Amino acid sequence: MKPTITAREHYDRLAESGHGRDDPPFMQEYMARWDGPPFWKAIGDVREKDVLEVGIGCSRIARQVLKHGCRSLTGLDISPKTIAAAKADLAEFPNVELVLADINDFVRPESFDAAFSVLTLMHVQDKQRALQNVVDSLCPGGHLVLSIDNASDSLDFGNWTVKLYPWAPERYAQVLSSIGCEVADPIPLIDTWVTPKGKKSETFGQEIATLVKATKR
């Protein structure tokens, strides 16, 4: 039987293996299925804005946000090895702060103009508290963009599994509305990825995730 490990252990192992940082271009395109053009349109112009990323991971998205000219980027993660890898990867940027913390324990009232999270909240059990902390950390008028995977209750990663806590996009929208946000219509993310050899992914043409954008009143 495969062992079930925590999200922290999972991402520690991925960081140790260099997962994400050394991916060839076609694998980066594969990962962008969850944060492609619709995601960047929802994020909008980040120039001279203070941005929070919940679950910085391999820093692939953070690097793009920084290149787009944000004033500062604060990256949060529960994995110390992920934070160490992100620190090395983003060393050229002086406007980065990396924080080893759980979003359920992190809040900076009215400190950020924008926040985002890609495939992270599926690991968070107490989503009500997590969303409240993010919204409390936004300035009035600031916005949050979530990329929500169509996840099951576990992630099979070959040699181990990780327990997940999926919510439907409608539930995210309901909670965000109840804690003081205007929530835009969810945006389905359709898989269009094809390998360099022309083979379509197993989920080609299907909705693999949903974008939820909320603006703090």
Description:
With 217 residues, this protein is of the alpha/beta class. It has a single domain (4-216), classed as Vaccinia Virus protein VP39 (Rossmann fold, 3-Layer(aba) Sandwich), CATH 3.40.50. Helices cover 29% and strands 28% of the residues. It has seven helices and eleven strands. The chain has helices spanning 7-16, 25-31, 37-43, 60-67, 80-89, 127-137, 169-178, and strands at 4-5, 50-54, 72-77, 96-100, 112-118, 138-149, 154-156, 161-163, 181-183, 187-190, 207-216. Strands 2, 3, 4, 5, 6, 9, 10 and 11 form an eight-stranded mixed sheet that branches. It has a three-stranded mixed sheet with strand order 1-8-7. The protein is globular. The termini are far apart. The model has no long low-confidence stretch (mean pLDDT 93).
Number of domains: 1
The residue-averaged pLDDT reads: 93
Poorly predicted regions are: none
For the biggest sheet, the summary is: 8 strands, mixed
**Which percent band covers the strand fraction?**
25-35%
Query: Helix/strand-derived class?
Result: alpha/beta
